[in-house]
Amino acid sequence: MTGPEPAVWPPVPIATARLVLRASEARDRAAFVALFSSPEVGAHIGGSRPRGELERAMPEVPGRRPGLFVVERDGAMIGTVTLDRRDAGPPYTGGAELGYLLLPEAWGHGYATEACAAALDRFADAFPGEPVTLRTRTANDRAMRLAAKLGFAEVERYEEYGAEQWSGVWSPAAPSG
After folding, report:
1. Strands (E), the chain
2. Which residues fall within 8 angstroms of residue 137, CB to CB, at 6 or more apart?
3. Helices 111-126 and 141-150 sit at what angle, rounded to 10 degrees?
4. How is the beta sheet containing 163-170 ordered, strand by strand?
5. Is residue 97 within 8 Å of 135, Cβ to Cβ?
6. pLDDT digit string (tens) for 22-54?
7. Does residue 118 register a pLDDT over 50?
8. pLDDT score at 47
C-alpha cells in the first residue's frame, strides 16, 4: 500500500485545546532520545534503548516521515502520534495503524486522548472511509481505556510476545448528504 507523500502528511499542524501536532524538527531530538530511552515507555513497546546508543544513532531531525506527528505542549515535545499505512492481513484490516508514545511526565492528563482524536479526525478527512487499527497488550489498562474512548471496536485477541494482545478497528463516520 502506498502511503501519504511526505510533503502532504502531516499536511499542516493541528491545534487542539492544549496541544499542537506537527512535523518533527531538530529541536525535538533530545525529547526523542528521552522517549525511547525511558524504561517506563519501554515497558509498553518491548523495551527501552540505551541513552548513549540513541545519542549516537539518532538523526539530527528524528521522526521525519509520513504519518508521524510530534505532540507539543507549551512549546515542548511531549510525545508522538503515528498513523502508519498497513496492507490488509492479520492482525491488520488495511488502512492505517494508530500508535502513540508520551513521555512519562505527560501521562495521566488526557493528552493521549486529545492528540489521538485530533490525528484520527485529520486522517478521516484525508482518507475518507479508511479504517484505522490499534493494537495493544490487554494488560495495558490505560491503552485499553484509550481505545474505548476513541471508539475502537475489538476485532480479535491473540497471543504474541508472550502476552495476550488486543486488536481493534476505528472507522470514521460515513459522510452525510
Report:
1. 14-15, 20-22, 68-73, 76-89, 92-102, 132-137, 153-160, 163-170
2. 44, 143, 161, 163, 164, 165, 166
3. 40
4. 14-15, 20-22, 68-73, 76-89, 92-102, 132-137, 163-170, 153-160
5. yes
6. 999 999 999 999 999 999 998 888 888 999 999
7. yes
8. 85
